């Protein structure tokens, strides 16, 4: 490492060195013509070729791609068909649930009426 005393012994202090640094900052090194020619040749070689414009896709193909393609459309079609089938013939429990959500009184029987009539007639007969 350098010692501060050795630089002062030679007559160089920070002020004297600052003059040299300022001169170096004002005049930067200019690149040679050979270097500039090689840089431009390298840039021309690595330049990307112009990409030709792709033909425009139909609207349904771009919508298909934005929805996710085949896998997503399979799930979407399955859910659509299930919704149509449930809407066309809803399960019996769904009617009770919807009526309960709307605040209506619902009378639901868990046993068939035909079974009840047979059961009641058995109770009425005294054997």
Structural commentary:
The chain is mostly helical and 127 residues long. It has a domain at 92-127. It has helices spanning 4-9, 14-26, 33-46, 59-67, 70-88, 92-101, 113-124. The radius of gyration is 45 Å and the shape is elongated. The mean pLDDT is 76.
Brief sketch in words of this structure:
The protein is an all-alpha fold and 127 residues long. The chain is built from 7 helices and no strands.
Tally of separate helices: 7
**Mean pLDDT, rounded to whole units?**
76
Radius of gyration: 45 Å
How many angstroms separate the termini? Answer: 124 Å
The biggest beta sheet is recorded as:
none
Q: What proportion strand?
A: under 5%
Features:
127 residues; mainly alpha; 65% helix; 0% strand; elongated
Architecture blueprint of SSEs:
Layout: H1 4-9, H2 14-26, H3 33-46, H4 59-67, H5 70-88, H6 92-101, H7 113-124
């Amino acid at each position: 490492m350098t010692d501060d005393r050795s630089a002062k012994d030679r007559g160089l202090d920070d002020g004297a060195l600052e003059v040299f640094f300022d001169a170096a900052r004002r005049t930067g090194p200019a690149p040679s013509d050979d270097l500039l020619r090689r840089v431009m040749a390298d840039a021309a070689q690595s330049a990307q070729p112009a990409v030709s414009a792709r033909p425009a896709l139909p609207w349904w193909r771009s919508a298909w791609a934005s929805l996710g393609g085949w896998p997503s459309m399979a799930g979407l079609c399955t859910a659509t068909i299930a919704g149509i089938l449930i809407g066309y013939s809803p399960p019996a429990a769904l009617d009770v649930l919807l009526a309960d959500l709307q605040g209506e009184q619902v009378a639901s029987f868990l046993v068939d009426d035909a079974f009840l009539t047979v059961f009641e007639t058995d109770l009425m007969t005294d054997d």
